[in-house]
Amino acid sequence: MNQYCAARGFAARPPFQDVFPLAFPARYRSQRIITASARQAISGCFGRHMTPTVSIVTPSYNCGAYIEDTLCSVQEQTYSRIEHIIVDGASTDDTVTILKRHTGRIKWLSEPDDGMYDAINKGFALASGEIFAYINADDLYSDPDVVARVVEELTANESVDFAYGHCAFTDEAGQLLYTYRAPFFNRTVALAYPRIIFHQPTCFWKRRVHRPFDSSFQHCGDSHFFRYLCECSSGKNIGRTIARFRVRADCWSFRGAERMAREGERVFGKVPQASLPLRLFDLVYIRTILNFRANLKRLALHYQGRPYL
After folding, report:
1. Structural domain harbouring 43
2. Cα(67)–Cα(248) distance, integer angstroms
């Protein structure tokens, strides 16, 4: 696996029984190696407290119509140790006014940036938590206990590096369109297709496997990062809906389709065609058993000329 990851420019962690490094590449920080005994001591301390801080980053630009719902979605979580960091790209709408109203409950800054992934990197550079996630300024967590449930899964399973779940998709008004049900984590399955098997706002990962997002991307930096997680880390599907993704006609995902396709080639272009058993698994299990209703709804939205993902 180390050779597999290294061939793609990813720094794989050494096996758990030997050592594990804090996961920033050398160009961002000097690599530290922690012995197995030290790791065991850290794990024991983590287990005794059972309340690691969760750092959630939200990149924002001119999302004043939606961002307060996102802030409230995080603040309503039952889990108490949440650090919410909003990195705004010098919005010209009322975003900053809204952020000022929440001062004391959030950390925030507003300044020009070099795109969404640059903003996300700024946020994680300020993060103090042991568990990371990011949610966009127009998305929500599905209910108040999802962060607590994710933390429970990640603290109960030392070998699990990241957790994810299902994602509900809504229209601009917040009305449910469909829910994508993610499959269980299996590395072979996760790497077999030219897509990520879960959606961005549902994923939480441990600090030890974090690395900066590639800010040369404008659209697919999250796919690039999550493919790295799938290749070099251990994941778990917690089996519940975690987030609500708002599908807007003017959202960033629908802008610059040609550039998005080129970036997709950068992330997935060298993925070989999946074997017949994996193609059948995709068709029968992921697309039909898990997501038959979601795919019917997506087809209906397509013929209605409405946006969908």
Report:
1. 2-304
2. 14
The CATH number of residue 227's host domain is: 3.90.550.10
Phi, psi of 233 (to 5 degrees): -140, 175
The CA–CA distances, whole Å, from 154 to 51, 185, 226 equal: 11, 14, 17
Per the CB < 8 A criterion, the answer to whether 135 and 201 are in contact is yes
Strand partners, 133: 56
Q: How many domains does the chain have?
A: 1
Inside any domain, residue 309: no
Q: Which residues contact 110 (CB under 8 A, 6 or more apart)?
A: 88, 89, 90, 91, 95, 96, 99
CA angle 118, 123, 125 (to 5 degrees): 95
What does the alpha-carbon distance between residue 280 and residue 263 come to, in Å, rounded to a whole number?
27
Q: What is the pLDDT of residues 151-207, one digit of tens each?
A: 999 999 999 999 999 999 999 989 999 999 999 999 999 999 999 999 999 999 999
Three-class SS state of 6: helix
Q: Helix or strand or coil: residue 168? A: strand
* pTM tops 0.85, yes or no: no
Q: How far apart are CA 87 and CA 91, in angstroms?
A: 10
CA distance 290 to 62: 35
From CA 262, how far away is CA 69, in angstroms rounded? 33
